């Protein structure tokens, strides 16, 4: 009984396993009778599983075996084997454009007949795809304990993939034994796996209650310190989603003050996230305080002070996270909101500009949207707004704010801006998501009218030049006429104007439109005729 | 709606650089919420805030209507399909051996011709000059026959073999072994790789387009390859109909097929507008067909590529536009009727050197911006500008949280779901990328599949709140269903956990069992890798049909329906009902078969049993019932379960364990066709020699069973009842007439035979052969005289004055040295009751025993016992006494003062051969009751003392012995 020996040695761990198992038991089945079984370490033994053999790995880097005398030389084959994908070569700052040269990297020893062997090498393609080693496969040095825990994990996975939560829970109770693992990496992995599987089952299981989840999270937090921050964060998310705002705040506050020796990079990032979320929750409390104090009109001083405390808390945390590259939309929105409330427009603008234009940050369209909206709220000049929107347009030509850009450009009225407005419109309609937008096509129709009025039709032709080979097929087919007509007659009418201007009156779209209109007319005539008869 | 971009995205760190994570933790699909943001509801109260998680744990689920897939087409007979056995590259010596043995013509023919003159086959006289240069074939044959091709055939001739090798090694082979070995090694490696992951099949060779929809049915066309080499393109009309509320696809009419030059690798279908374009890719050719709802499909155009084509995509925007990519790294825009237009060429990989010639391309939301992909990432390139103007959509790296070694397997533009979304799959994950916000994935799933997903289908459901993505892998046939929502107004959100759909490989377990070799055959057929998937979504009655094509051209389908609470509960109840039925009727063959074929369920049920029996009040789930445990303990515990249990579990079971009759019928016919198509015997299997026994055993054809059918059935019922009670089936319990009782034969009266021979024989049968002869020859005359005298004396004594009992005892003791327990008992008896004389005593005994007088000569041969117990005792005595010579002595007799005497007796009887023993055995039974004759008494003494104490009889004898001792002590 390997497990029993381990139990004796690691009673502390075992106790943990038992406690977790116990909590789990209570959730997945009311009877606590099984809890004691786990400590005895006989659950893993009690189930037999058919072994799923993973695909054995290709014999990489194997030494040449002694084979029959007829095999004289196959050195090149092995040489090529060694040249298999090297992970260290995976990332190169400048892309290597010469694909063919890699095959020769390791063939140092047989250069005398390179030319002869060229066709052979070309024929054989070395594996270009590292197929993941099946982690659930059997390993050569595997103890019975590892084997049964591996098989158990496979069973749990199968159950989870087929959404059989109850069964998975029962297997998981057995799997808690892996916490008794001796080697540290394996034990860490076991903690992670148990946390993931356990929380998933508790989220999905019909019998699980919030207390169970809370308790499970609490136990898991202290089973191996590495996961503490992650689990705390996850715990607070869970509390938020289940509507326990205050508990979530408490969780984050506790996690914030957690200190443990040296932190890994991942842990440091988690800590930053915890700070950020803590700030975000403070912001939410600030909002609620703001709402309640504004209701009271005057508001007592203490409420205002409390609000201010929340503001300061949120400010400090959010400032920190906004310095790091990432997507922080909710945080930015909240921070700017608060700054605006306290009339720190300068600060808000800086934050938004930083968020939008810092090259370390990903090209987030929302950053520009926030900046534009802020400028709009502040009533800044159109020029500034247009500039922001133009940058956004370069990023996402199909953004819905492009219609606003169009109208802004139209307002300025110069030929240049008209040209730009037309470009914006053309780009917008290039995108297939705007294909059936009545607003966009109406804008286009208005634009054409305007250009006609201003006698600037050459602008239209310029834009059309690059599109004339594919727009007819993209927008103005007979099929589109019918589909548009079914969608909305308005759309059809708008598009017809554009089509007749761009393609010509005799285009298929226009002809089809006429047919449809005639049909419609005829139908209406019949209807009125019938009515009159009555 | 698609034009909107989410107002807020979930917070995430933006990392750059190479992937840092290692593929270690295998459970990333589960457990986490990801990130959360608050939805501004405008309310002041915190309690009113709604929070949005990156992964919504409880999403809507699809539930399969049946637990197994069903075949859509009858199987085509394919002579040979490769098994799932992966060839090992290290097997090349074996392959070389096979080559030399079975293809010797190819291996050695040149040298054969050259050396022909130098071998002598004993056909003719050899010329003198040739003798020196010729090798006799006889010697060669002897040499070869002793070799026998075992492990190292040349071992006994090591020296000579090496000499031969030195002499001929480099000339005898047509193909140098080194080269052959190398080539074989490469080929095997390649084959192995291809079996694990064959990238040419990326995209899948199964397509579907919709023709018309009505309220009750949906009509579409399935495009699939057929024939052994998958080189015939079929367009087949499919109607999805609702039968008993279950949607079933059905083929209509005959398929329209076109022969294609090469194996069809990919079928790409455009959207159905006025017409639909279907692109078909083979290794070096790409073709395009056009079909309308009214007209039959027409081939339009074919192009040929120099290098192997890896991708063909039909445009969702423009009719007649396709994209072609080939291994040369060039991507073309192919407008039907015009030549290919190159828009991008990359010799190497995009972001780092992945050593892969695989290229992929797809369309994007902009009809003139194309997606170009390889194993390292995805780029958008504008085909309007001359110089390559491109920007990254996705790259393997830390930005999208990739693991090291991760590679792009497939990308797909999800036009029908969201015009800006692209699906990217890798070995570990599936990503949804928004082309408006490149680099950072909107959604990341860990799909948890064993082999990389090469096929993908995306379905935007009617409600538009939930998009379903189905991933399919090749070698392991897995189908995984993932769901997400949002991406327009709100940020994209993962819904629920990945769900595994059933695959043909696993369906076999639910099918009726076959004969083992057929089962193996079917199993091999069902484990053939997948070659494509397709999905049919029917929005009127929300249902999703998933079709899967295998590499031998079989198509299987399964139907999914949204798992609403009601339907789940109904299914659950139904299941319970069904199960109770099966429990009543005992285990059906289905179940037993399942338990055999499906070790998983078996284990589960086992473990459940265990749990049940271990806990006092177990909250047993209905799972146990589903698995059909018929153990009484489980049933007993299950029965008192209340409704509460059922309600609570209704959510837990989205899988129905049932298989409908229609599906089973389909499978049955499918299996039949498969079996009939498998007539041809394998190439190498030799028929063993058989002997025909047809004429030897003639059978008249009459039924041997005289019982009628009704009787047999009633008998079976009786049998079952009796087995349940665990009792014995007796004749009385059945409806059969009681069997006739045969009368026992009359005892043989040996007295009626008067002649010598008969008498002798009957006596020797009893064992008295020696006595008879002694009697006959008068050898025992003196003995008899003596006996008579004694008799007379005894008579005189009885007549005369009463003597003390001790006197009689001593006389007998003096003569006999030892006394039988019974005789002593008699004497004791006599002592106790002096009035009773021995004659009366004997008379008393005789009346009691109701037996004939112990006349030696005329005894009735009767082995029929007086009482059954006694007879069995006797018999055991007989057998025991026969073995007495070898038997160990009874320890109770050791230390007995008369033991030496008895030993002598033993030796005596041993000297007297077996005849003596027989005498003992035969006489014992009777002599015991009539201790009159001395000789018999002797033997009886020896008998009773020698036999081990067994049964009541021996006990009584011993107790009598004790009694005797007491009597002696009294003296």
Automatic annotation (TrEMBL), chain A:
GO terms for cellular component: RNA polymerase I transcription regulator complex. It holds the Pfam family TAF1_subA. Residues 98-126 are annotated as: Disordered. GO terms for biological process: heart contraction; transcription by RNA polymerase I. It comes from the Eukaryota. Residues 105-118 have a biased composition (Acidic residues). This is TATA box binding protein (TBP)-associated factor, RNA polymerase I, A. It comes from Paramormyrops kingsleyae.
């Amino acid at each position: 009984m390997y497990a029993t020996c381990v139990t004796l040695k690691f009673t502390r761990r075992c106790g943990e396993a038992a406690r977790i198992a116990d909590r789990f038991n209570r959730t997945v089945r009311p009877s606590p009778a099984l809890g004691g079984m786990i400590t005895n370490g006989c659950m893993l033994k009690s189930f037999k599983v058919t072994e799923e053999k993973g695909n054995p790995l290709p014999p990489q880097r194997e030494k040449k075996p002694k084979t029959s005398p007829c095999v004289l030389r196959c050195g090149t084959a092995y040489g090529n084997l060694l040249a298999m994908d090297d992970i260290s070569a995976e990332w190169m700052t400048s892309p290597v454009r010469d694909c063919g040269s890699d095959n020769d990297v390791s063939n140092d020893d047989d250069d005398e007949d390179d030319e002869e062997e060229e066709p052979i090498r070309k024929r054989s393609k070395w594996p270009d795809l590292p197929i993941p080693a099946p982690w659930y496969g059997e390993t050569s040095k595997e103890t019975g304990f590892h084997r049964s825990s591996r098989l158990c994990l496979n069973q749990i996975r199968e159950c989870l993939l087929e959404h059989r939560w109850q069964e998975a829970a029962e297997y998981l109770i057995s799997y808690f034994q892996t916490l008794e693992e001796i080697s540290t990496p394996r034990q860490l992995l076991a903690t992670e796996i148990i946390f993931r599987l356990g929380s998933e089952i508790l989220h999905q299981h019909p019998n699980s209650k919030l207390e169970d989840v809370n308790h499970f999270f609490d136990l898991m937090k202290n089973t191996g310190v590495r996961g503490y921050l992650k689990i705390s964060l996850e715990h607070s998310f869970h509390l938020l989603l289940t509507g326990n705002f205050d508990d979530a705040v408490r969780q984050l506050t506790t996690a914030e003050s957690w200190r443990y020796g040296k932190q890994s990079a991942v842990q440091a990032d988690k800590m930053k996230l915890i700070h950020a979320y803590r700030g975000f929750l403070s912001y939410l409390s600030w909002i609620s305080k703001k709402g309640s104090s504004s209701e009271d009109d005057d508001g007592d001083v203490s409420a205002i002070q409390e609000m201010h405390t929340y503001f300061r808390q949120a400010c400090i945390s959010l400032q920190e996270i906004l310095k790091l590259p990432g997507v922080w939309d909710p945080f930015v929105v909240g921070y700017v909101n608060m700054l605006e409330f306290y009339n720190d427009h300068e600060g808000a603008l800086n934050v938004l500009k930083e968020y939008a234009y810092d090259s370390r940050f990903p090209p987030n369209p929302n950053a520009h949207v926030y900046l534009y909206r802020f400028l709009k709220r502040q009533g800044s000049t159109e020029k500034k707004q247009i500039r922001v929107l133009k940058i956004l347009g370069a990023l996402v030509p199909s953004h819905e704010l492009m219609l606003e850009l169009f109208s802004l450009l139209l307002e300025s009225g110069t030929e240049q801006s008209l040209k730009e407005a037309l470009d914006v419109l053309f780009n917008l309609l290039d995108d297939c998501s705007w294909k059936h937008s009545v607003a966009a096509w109406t804008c286009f129709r208005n634009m054409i009218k305007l250009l006609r009025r201003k006698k600037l039709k050459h602008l239209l032709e310029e834009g059309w030049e690059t599109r004339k080979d594919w727009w007819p097929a993209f927008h103005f087919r007979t099929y589109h006429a019918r589909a548009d007509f079914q969608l909305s007659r308005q759309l059809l009418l708008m598009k017809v104007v554009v089509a007749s201007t761009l393609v010509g009156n005799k285009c298929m779209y226009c002809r089809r439109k006429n047919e449809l209109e005639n049909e419609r007319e005829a139908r209406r005539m019949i209807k009125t005729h019938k009515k009159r008869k009555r | 709606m698609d034009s909107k971009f989410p107002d807020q995205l979930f917070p995430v760190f933006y990392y750059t650089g190479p992937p840092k994570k290692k593929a270690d933790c295998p459970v990333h699909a589960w457990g986490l919420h990801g990130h959360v943001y608050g939805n501004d509801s405008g309310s002041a109260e915190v309690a009113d805030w709604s929070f949005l998680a990156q992964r919504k744990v409880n999403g809507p689920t699809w539930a399969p209507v049946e637990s197994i897939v069903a075949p859509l087409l009858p199987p085509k007979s394919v002579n040979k399909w490769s098994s799932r056995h992966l060839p090992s590259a290290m097997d090349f010596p074996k392959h070389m051996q096979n080559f030399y043995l079975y293809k010797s013509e190819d291996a050695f023919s040149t040298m054969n011709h050259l050396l022909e003159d130098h071998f002598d086959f004993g056909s003719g006289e050899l010329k003198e000059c040739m003798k020196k240069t010729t090798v006799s074939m006889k010697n060669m044959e002897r040499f070869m026959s002793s070799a026998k091709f075992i492990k190292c055939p040349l071992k006994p001739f090591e020296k000579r073999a090496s000499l031969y090798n030195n002499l001929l090694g480099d000339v005898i082979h047509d193909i140098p072994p080194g080269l052959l070995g190398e080539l074989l090694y490469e080929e095997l490696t390649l084959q192995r790789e291809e079996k694990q992951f064959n990238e040419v099949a990326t995209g899948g060779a199964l397509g579907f387009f919709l023709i018309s929809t009505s309220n009750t049915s949906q009509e579409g066309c399935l495009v699939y390859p057929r024939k052994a080499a998958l080189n015939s393109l079929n367009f087949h009309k499919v109607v999805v109909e609702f039968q008993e509320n279950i949607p079933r696809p059905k083929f209509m009419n005959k398929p329209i097929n076109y022969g294609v030059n090469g194996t069809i690798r990919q079928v790409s279908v455009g959207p159905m507008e006025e017409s639909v374009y279907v692109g078909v890719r083979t290794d070096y050719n790409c073709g395009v067909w056009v079909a309308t709802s009214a007209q039959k499909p027409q081939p339009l155009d074919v192009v040929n590529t120099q290098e192997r084509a890896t991708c063909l995509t039909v445009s969702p925007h423009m009719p007649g536009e396709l994209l072609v990519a080939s291994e040369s790294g060039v991507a073309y825009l192919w407008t039907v009727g015009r030549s290919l237009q190159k828009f991008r060429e990359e010799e190497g990989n995009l972001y780092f050197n992945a050593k892969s010639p695989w290229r992929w391309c797809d369309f994007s939301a902009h009809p003139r911006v194309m997606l170009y992909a390889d194993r390292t990432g995805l780029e958008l390139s504008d085909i309007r500008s001359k110089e390559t103007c491109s920007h990254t959509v996705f790259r393997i790296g830390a930005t999208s949280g990739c693991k090291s070694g991760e590679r792009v397997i497939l990308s797909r533009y999800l036009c029908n779901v969201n015009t800006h979304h692209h699906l990217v799959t890798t070995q570990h994950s599936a990503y949804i990328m928004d082309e408006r916000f490149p680099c950072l994935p909107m959604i990341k799933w860990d799909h948890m599949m064993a082999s990389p997903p090469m096929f993908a289908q995306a379905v935007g459901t009617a409600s538009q709140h939930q998009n379903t993505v189905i991933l399919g892998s090749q070698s392991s046939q897995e189908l995984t269903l993932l769901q997400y929502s949002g991406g327009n107004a709100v940020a994209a959100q993962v819904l629920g956990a990945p769900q595994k759909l059933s695959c043909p490989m696993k369906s076999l377990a639910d099918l009726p069992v076959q004969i083992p070799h057929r089962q193996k055959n079917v199993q091999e057929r069902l484990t053939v890798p997948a070659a494509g998937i397709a999905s049919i979504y029917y929005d009127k009655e929300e249902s999703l049909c998933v079709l899967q094509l295998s590499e031998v051209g079989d198509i299987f389908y399964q139907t999914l329906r949204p798992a609403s609470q009601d339907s789940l509960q109904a299914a659950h109840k139904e299941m319970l009902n069904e199960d109770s039925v099966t429990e009543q009727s005992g285990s059906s063959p289905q179940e037993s078969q399942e338990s055999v074929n499906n070790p998983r369920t078996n284990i589960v049920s086992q473990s459940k049993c265990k749990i049940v029996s271990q806990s006092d009040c177990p909250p047993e789930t209905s799972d146990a019932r589903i698995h059909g445990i018929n153990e009484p303990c489980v049933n007993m515990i299950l029965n008192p379960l209340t409704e509460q249990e059922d309600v609570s579990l209704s959510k837990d079971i989205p899988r129905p364990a049932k298989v409908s009759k229609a599906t089973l019928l389909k499978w049955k016919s499918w299996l039949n066709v498969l079996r009939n198509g498998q007539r041809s015997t394998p190439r190498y299997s030799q028929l063993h020699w058989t002997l025909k026994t047809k004429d030897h055993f003639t059978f008249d054809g009459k039924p041997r069973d005289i019982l009628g059918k009704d009787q047999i059935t009633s008998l079976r019922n009786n049998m079952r009842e009796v087995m349940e009670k665990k009792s014995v089936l007796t004749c009385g319990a059945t409806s059969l007439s009681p069997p006739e009782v045969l009368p026992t034969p009359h005892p043989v009266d040996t007295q009626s035979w008067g002649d010598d021979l008969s008498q002798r024989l009957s006596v020797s049968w009893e064992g008295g052969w020696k006595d008879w002869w002694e009697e006959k020859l008068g050898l025992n005359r003196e003995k008899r005289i003596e006996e008579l005298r004694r008799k007379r004396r005894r008579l005189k004594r009885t007549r005369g004055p009463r003597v003390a009992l001790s006197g009689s005892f001593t006389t007998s003791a003096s003569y006999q040295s030892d006394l039988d327990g019974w005789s002593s008992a008699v004497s004791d008896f006599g002592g106790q009751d002096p009035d009773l004389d021995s004659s009366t005593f004997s008379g008393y005994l005789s009346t009691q025993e109701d037996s004939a007088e112990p006349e030696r000569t005329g005894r009735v041969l009767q082995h029929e016992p007086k009482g059954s117990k006694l007879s069995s005792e006797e018999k055991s005595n007989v057998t025991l006494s026969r073995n007495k010579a070898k038997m160990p002595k009874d320890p109770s007799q050791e230390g007995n003062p008369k033991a030496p005497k008895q030993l002598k007796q033993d030796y005596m009887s041993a000297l007297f051969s077996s005849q003596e023993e027989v005498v003992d055995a035969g006489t014992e039974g009777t002599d015991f009751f009539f201790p009159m004759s001395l000789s018999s008494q002797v033997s009886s003494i020896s008998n009773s003392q020698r036999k081990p104490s067994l049964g009541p009889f021996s006990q009584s004898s011993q107790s009598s012995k004790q009694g005797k001792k007491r009597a002696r002590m009294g003296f």
